[in-house]
Amino acid sequence: MNRAKVSSGDVDALTDAVLTASRLLVAVSARSIAAVDESITLAQFRMLVVLDSRGPVKLTSLAEHLSVNPSTATRMVDRLAANGLVVRQASQTSRRELVLGLSAEGKRVVQTATRRRRAEIRKIVSRMPAETRVGLVDSLVAFADAGGEPVVPDNWTPLGTPA
């Protein structure tokens, strides 16, 4: 992609820029996950993050959030449960239904990988010229909102940091 300034209304140029940035973010994410647990895939980590951000959910809701078939979600849950990262529990509204949630170890994995990812992204952002960082927060928040991604809560703290 041409690194020359583009008009903020140039959807194709902005799409190319986001695609390029997403390659970097996927690489950062993969490194942070591998440093915590090499057996977890990006897709499985995404499931853990959804459970962390949304709390216990039914399998069908989880599959919808991940845009996968329930059978795919079931296989992912089975692997993560076997590794002690996900727990199945009775629903509070109906004893016949099961909901899925993070185990304490699953929460630790999400928080540790996120802490590592945050540190690496912080290094990258700090290397950007200050004038190019102006407006970046608003743009990224709007982008995440348009994609339906929940914002990291204000009270979220990575493991090992004071609340």
Describe this structure in words.
- By secondary structure, this protein is mainly alpha-helical.
- The protein has a single domain, classed as Orthogonal Bundle (Arc Repressor Mutant, subunit A).
- Helices cover 60% and strands 6% of the residues.
- The chain has a two-stranded antiparallel ribbon.
- The C terminus is likely disordered.
- GO terms for molecular function: DNA binding; DNA-binding transcription factor activity.
Number of helices: 7
Outline the biggest β-sheet: 2 strands, antiparallel
Uncertain regions spanning at least 5 consecutive residues:
159-163
Q: Can you say what the CATH homologous superfamily is?
A: Winged helix-like DNA-binding domain superfamily/Winged helix DNA-binding domain
Q: Which structural category fits the helices and strands?
A: mainly alpha
Provide the residue-averaged pLDDT. 86
Distance between the termini: 41 Å
- What best-fitting shape do the alpha-carbon axes yield? globular
Query: Helix-strand pattern, N to C?
Result: HHHHEEHHH
- Percent in strands: 5-15%
Descriptive tags:
7 helices; single chain; 163 residues; 6% strand; mainly alpha; 2 strands; Arc Repressor Mutant, subunit A
Topology:
Layout: H1 11-36, H2 42-54, H3 59-66, H4 70-82, E1 86-90, E2 98-102, H5 104-126, H6 130-133, H7 136-146
Antiparallel strand pairs: 1-2
Helix pairs in contact: 1-5, 3-4
Keywords: DNA-binding, Transcription, Transcription regulation
Pfam families: MarR
Organism: Saccharothrix ecbatanensis
